[in-house]
Amino acid sequence: MLSCARHDRTPGRLPLTLALVLAACGGASDPAKGAKADAKDAKADAKTEVIDTKRNDATSLDKAVQALDLSGPVPPEASAVFFTVDGALIPIGCYDSAKKKLEGGKDCLGLVKAGDEVYLRSNSVEKLDKAGAPKSSMCQPGEDKPTSIGIPSVDSGETFDYAVFPKSMGKLINRVDPETYSEKGRVASEDEKKALTELVKPDAELQINQSVSFDVDGDGQADKLFSVYVVNPKDSEKLSYSGVLLQRGNAPGKWVPLLESRNDTETYTVRAFIDLDGDKSQEVWVNAVLTDGGGGDRIFKLKDGGADPLAKWSCGI
Asked: Are 265 and 62 in contact (CB under 8 A)?
């Protein structure tokens, strides 16, 4: 194989083989052809230079986007708090690393101090901000002892879906695709509908509100969650059943209720999964919407045969 390595040029006539090598590597070329090539390259460079001078670095779309710094410890080495956001940060679930325990609500407030860095997220925006003083949320006006936390970005009118402390937890939130509770995503096979109907025993047709597939227990198999409801056959403005039902990937066909309601007011949506205590099993964030327009949030710890809530529903529902 011929190599384009450097050769020392000594006076005298070059051997034919070496001359061919130099020609292939760009050396010993025709001076006239070389001049034309150089002129062509110079013209191309000049053209590129003209285009570059028209760019506005301040508005260029190829400007590098700086990712947020989400470094730091996570559970079980560190405590963590998960918040929903409604005019303030509402703690609905937390892990206390000193107690090695999952908690919720006001029991989480002592884990976050004023000035601690918090990660906030909406569908299109993520941000870091500093926690402020205790504050009442929009859905808890007139509280004598606020059970939520203020934060400057929310105080100034910005809106977010959730927040977590420490900021390092931001990379561990598994948000549910909104399509799972869209008309396109509300699907179930005939076998699934039959199994759910046998479990719920509805007094009217079972309706699918959401269908989610996610590995909640970390065994490598996708588990499935359905949010379902039944319209009261005696009053179309009410519900006779609503719930979230879970099928483990390692137990196909077996469904267990994560939560259920027969009070004719609530429908549920699974919003995200998060491992709050670092045990490789995901906790489940569920949002409830009432028929009168109200709502609230809750985090559930999964267990064999169902789930346990970490606290009461937020916003007093």
From this structure: no
